[in-house]
Amino acid sequence: MNRSPLCTPRDHRLSRRQWLGSAALGVGAFATPAVANELKKRRKQVLFVWLDGGMSQLESWDPKPNTTFGGPFRAIPTSVPGIHISELLPDTAKQMHRLALVRSVSTQDNSHSAGVDRIQRGDPKNRGVTYPYFGSAVAKLLGPGDGGLPPYVWVKPGNGGFIYKDAGFLGPQYGALALGDGKPPENLVRPPDLPAEADAARNELRKLADKRYAAGRRTELTEANSFAFDTADQLQRQLDLFDSAKLPAKDRDRYGTHDLGRHMLLARRLLEAGVTFVKVTSYGWDTHGDHFNGTASLHPKFDRPFAAIVQDLADRGMLDDVLVIVAAEFGRTPRINGHLGRDHWPEAWSVCMAGRGIKPGVAAGKTNALGTDVATEPHDIGHLFHTWYAALGIDAAAKHFYNAGQPLPIAHEEMHPVKEVLA
Amino acid sequence: MPVRFYFLATAYTLAFTPLVFAADPLAVRIDRLIEAKAKTEGVPLAARADDAEFLRRAWLDLAGQIPPTADVRAFLADRSADKRARLLDRLLDGPDYAPRMADRFHLMLMERLGDHTEWSTYLRETFAANKPWDAMARDILRADPKADAVTRGAAFFLAKRLENYGQNPVDYSALTRDVGRLFLGKNLQCAECHDHLFINDYKQRHFQGLFAYVKNTTLVPGPTPRVAEKPTTEKMKFASVFTKVEMITGPALPDGRMVEVPAFPKGQEYAESPDRKTNAPGVPKFSTLAALSEQLPTVKNRDFVRNAVNRLWFVLLGRGLVHPLDLHHADNPASHPELLELLADEFVAHQFDIKWLLREIARSETYQRSSLLPAGVKPPDPALFAVALEKRLSAEQLFAAVCQAAGGKPTPALKAKFVKAYANQPREPEEEPIPSLRGALFVLHDADVLALLKPKPGSLVDRLANLADADLADELYLSVLTRHPTAEETATVKKILTAADGKRTDAISELAWALIASTEFGVNH
């Protein structure tokens, strides 16, 4: 279990925070070049932003101003000459030199229920098993990281809990720890009538009991039990993750006080704390009616915190480690319906990525002049999974999941990465 | 020449087979087969579990509970040679056996899909009466609305699976799959749309044949679990998604004979016509559920018998002879094929007597082996059953054990909390122990759990607080872990108490909590 000869997992967390987190703490004793390289080599993380319902590609990554279906908004230049995106994403436009777009996404499922599952599970072929969501897959393939926190944390509006269904056949331990509205999981907070010393004392006794029990037995179970308690311990130690009052006001203002702003800021802090995969979900993007007024208020809600987190990750040197993905179950129809809305359009839409393994400042693939169809090689979700795995340094051709002994590919076999966006 | 050869073979058999073999109790024959295989593999067997390990294991398996402290003391002090056999008899014939088996089979058959009082009553009554497994399976698969008040509850197995949620249609695929998995040990999921790609034995016609038995069943909404049937008037067409070749089947067990679908003139399919006024669903003359319940749970249906003994073996040993439990097929043979056949033969010979089989398995040395590895030995393949496997405690067992250990009152509200903290999601079989963050946070911080460890009249902590330091460790370990403490553990307790100073009760509470939160307490080892 000891992953590094250099220091214990807890040292890692501390050293990394000192090293990357705040200049005020200075460069700690741990931040020798050797440790820094070691950290860099090992750490791979993902920020997965899910705009549930489907963000319009025409009002974001692939605008078609002054065309039949283009809508009323303009395209604006970005920090990368030649790449224009919608004027609804002005802050993001300034980050374009850190982003990569795939404008040739063409998927299959037209309904939310099938689309959310299919895109996040990335398994176009029905094999009679339930594939894991990307978060569970990454949790399985990359492990829990060195911060002692669960590998897959999901920040979402509404209720939280332990969401096992995401894990599919990988089994419940790879499910998501969901933080409903960014709040901590149930029973996380130590009751006030249990003093810290008493808590520490009883846990020492528990560990001693486990150590004695494990002697002479198979140790997997004791190790798994310790891991559950250690995770609980680590989460408790980071209660301030859930206390936005402790954040500088400047941060809150930059990200915004609406739910997506608060959740994106929490995501940054979870990534800083070492969580392997952080998913941030925003609901309400299914704009079948009054689409243009809708997007005029929705897109800025995404634009500000997204630009802020990309900037912050870059400032902290974390974009080298964190793969950033913005996706949804599909895009929206070019045709504008009778309710001034756009409907579901899996045929031609866009996905944005950044960070680890991604070539910055590129736009791959093209749609036709009206945006109705992909004009270059179409890319299905399988291509995107290959791209993401490649960016994370995981060989999708060689690596397999195992379900009851049966090897299963981690990504669609007939597909390949979108090379244009890989660094 | 052939004649002579026959005689030779007979002589050989007579010379080398001990004549007493068949007369030996099943427990002995189990051990012989398990030990022979371990010997062939060169794997040493674990020592016999000591009395305390055996006592706790048997109580949890057969009473769903850890023993009260007084029982532990009495059993450990008992010097008679037959005390283990007597304990097994006491538990199997005791008042907790039926509720425990009802819980165990509820978990196995419903997989947290839901519960119903009529269903739990049915399970408790049938286990109390030790109804044979074939008769239980018949009750469950028949779902007869005209059955007596207790048997009627068996319909819940089908009724719950015939519910639909919101706009989602009834999941007949899952129902078909569960009949195959839970009664035949075959997970035909991948054979719904085509022959199984990796398991040669699982054909699409097997899935479709089972589906044909249940496809015309519907839920009758109401307070009691009730299933109705629409008439099945013709065979069913299906085609593989690969070959698109149309095939046809009536209701049929995997590789069994297809049931003929009788033809009735239109309008005469019903023995009792549906009545729109009273919402009575009607009763068709030809009932596929009647056919299923007559054909599936039989002596001749080896799939049914093997699945039953494999699952009962799993209940006590923590792993199936065929594993996973629902993947019986030629390429996944039993770890001990002869043993599986032996158990199946004997189960049939004893008229599917569940209690008899559990008693025989529990009497074996295999069941009574320690979970401690033989010194200096690496953990062997679990399929050898050379070392006892740790079994998961269900949320219900854990709840009962915590209340017993801590001397707290088992309330339904607290039980519900335990289920929320420790149960798997619906349809996720609870077959192995998986410690979770959710469970850890629950035992760490839940107010009701912590309240159990406060000194209240009759509680463990209160009892311990009134003991002298010298007696405390023993009472604590006997009450929580069903064993005496080791010298080292006694020393730890003493040290903690000495250091506690004015906070003796708090220290006792911490000691008790640590044992309840430990891995040793959380599993059946």
Topology:
The complex is a heterodimer of chains A (423) and B (525).
Chain A: H1 9-21, H2 33-42, E1 45-51, E2 75-77, E3 84-86, H3 90-93, E4 99-105, H4 112-121, H5 134-142, E5 152-156, E6 161-163, E7 176-180, H6 196-214, H7 220-237, H8 249-255, H9 259-272, E8 277-282, H10 291-315, E9 322-327, E10 331-332, E11 344-345, E12 349-355, E13 362-364, H11 381-391, E14 400-403, E15 406-409
Parallel strand pairs in A: 1-8, 1-9, 4-13, 5-7, 5-8
Antiparallel strand pairs in A: 2-3, 4-12, 6-7, 9-12, 10-11, 14-15
Chain B: H1 2-16, H2 26-41, H3 51-63, H4 69-77, H5 83-92, H6 97-110, H7 117-128, H8 133-142, H9 156-161, H10 172-184, H11 204-214, E1 217-219, E2 227-229, E3 236-239, E4 246-249, E5 270-272, E6 283-284, H12 288-295, H13 302-317, H14 337-349, H15 354-363, E7 391-392, H16 395-406, H17 412-422, H18 437-445, H19 447-452, H20 460-465, H21 469-480, H22 487-500, H23 504-516, H24 519-522, E8 523-524
Helix pairs in contact in B: 2-14, 2-15, 3-5, 5-15, 6-7, 8-12, 10-11, 13-14, 13-15, 16-17, 21-22, 22-23
Structural account:
The complex is a heterodimer of chains A (423) and B (525). Chain A is an alpha/beta fold. In chain A, 33% of the residues lie in helices and 16% in strands. Chain A contains eleven helices and 15 strands. Chain A has helices at 9-21, 33-42, 90-93, 112-121, 134-142, 196-214, 220-237, 249-255, 259-272, 291-315, 381-391, and strands spanning 45-51, 75-77, 84-86, 99-105, 152-156, 161-163, 176-180, 277-282, 322-327, 331-332, 344-345, 349-355, 362-364, 400-403, 406-409. In chain A, strands 6-7-5-8-1-9-12-4-13 form a nine-stranded mixed β-sheet, sandwiched between helices. In chain A, strand 14 and strand 15 (406-409) form a beta hairpin. Chain A is globular, with a radius of gyration of 22 Å. Helix content of chain B is 50%, strand content 4%. In chain B, helix 3 runs parallel beside helix 5 (83-92), helix 8 packs antiparallel against helix 12 (288-295) and helix 10 (172-184) packs across helix 11. With 525 residues, chain B is mainly α. Chain B is globular, with a radius of gyration of 26 Å. Chain B has helices spanning 2-16, 26-41, 51-63, 69-77, 83-92, 97-110, 117-128, 133-142, 156-161, 172-184, 204-214, 288-295, 302-317, 337-349, 354-363, 395-406, 412-422, 437-445, 447-452, 460-465, 469-480, 487-500, 504-516, 519-522; strands at residues 217-219, 227-229, 236-239, 246-249, 270-272, 283-284, 391-392, 523-524. In chain B, the strands form four sheets. A two-stranded antiparallel sheet of chain B has the order 1-2. Chain B has a two-stranded antiparallel sheet with strand order 3-4. In chain B, strands 5-6 form a two-stranded antiparallel ribbon. Chain B has three domains: 98-263 and 278-296, no CATH class; 300-384, no CATH class; 390-524, no CATH class. In chain B, a hairpin with a 7-residue loop joins strand 1 and strand 2. Chains A and B meet through helix 6 and helix 7 of A and helix 18, helix 22, helix 23 and helix 24 of B. Chain B: InterPro entries: DUF1549, DUF1553. Chain B: Keywords: Signal. Chain B: Residues 29-217 form the DUF1549 domain.
